[in-house]
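User: My instructor asked us to take a sequence, write out its structure as tokens, and then describe one feature of it. I'm not sure where to start. Here is the sequence I was given:
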Amino acid sequence: MMDMNVQDTAKAKGWDLEGTLRRFGGSQMMLERFLKKFPQDPTFGKLEEAAEQGDLPGIETAAHTLKGIAGNLGLTALYEGCSSLVAAVRAGETQRVPGLWETVRAEYQAAVSAVAQIEW
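Assistant: Let's start with the prediction itself. The structure tokens for your sequence are:
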């Protein structure tokens, strides 16, 4: 895949760039700074560890945190996946957790990959 700018990537991935820019007071520079930092955020690692251990409270906490990060950055699919995972844990729907976790992991990896492709 060729390098793309933030707008092209956001459009291709279905990210909510307009909403994100509103949250960042219209600052493209701030948006780019936070997107660049996204792959280094430790929250996904915490979620992965909780999922591997079957730690439902840990999954709920980390998925809720990641949902907030994804929502703020406009990473729509990751936000939706985290929302579903949090809802399943809170509802006690433990049979749904593994499949939802796999969805979140795939969406996270897709988002990190897309950020890596952005020509800053």
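For the description part of your assignment, you could build on this observation: The two ends are 15 Å apart (CA to CA). Try explaining in your own words what that tells you about the chain.
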